[in-house]
Amino acid sequence: MNCEVSILLEHRCDQLKHLSDDSLKQLPQVFKKALQYVKRFSRFTNQDAVKQVREVLSRYQLAEYELAVLGNLCPETVEEANAVVPSLKTKGRSHDDEAIEKLLNDLLMVKKFE
Questions:
Q1: Angle between helix 2-19 and helix 64-73 axes, rounded to 10 deg
Q2: What CA–CA distance (Å, rounded) separates 39 from 5?
Q3: Are 18 and 71 spatial neighbours (Cβ–Cβ below 8 Å)?
Q4: pTM score, two decimals?
């Protein structure tokens, strides 16, 4: 998820700052742009909230890409969730509308208390 990448890149940036005073000038442009992007589009900024989101989404036996899409976009309705992750409705999966609604409510609770 973007929020996890943001935490990792910020940590790496902090490590580089401690190694050298000129480290920010030495950071590749791609690194700076990637950090800027994930900071801008991260739905969760608090590290504890990021862990909670990962835990909540992991309970639902989602594929890694499904987990990332739902964590990044935080859809508000079942219809939105199914539109952005059509595989939630694949035959043979245990994700009915009620389970998806519960997942979205769990995400909303994390966001509210962040």
A1: 90
A2: 9
A3: no
A4: 0.85
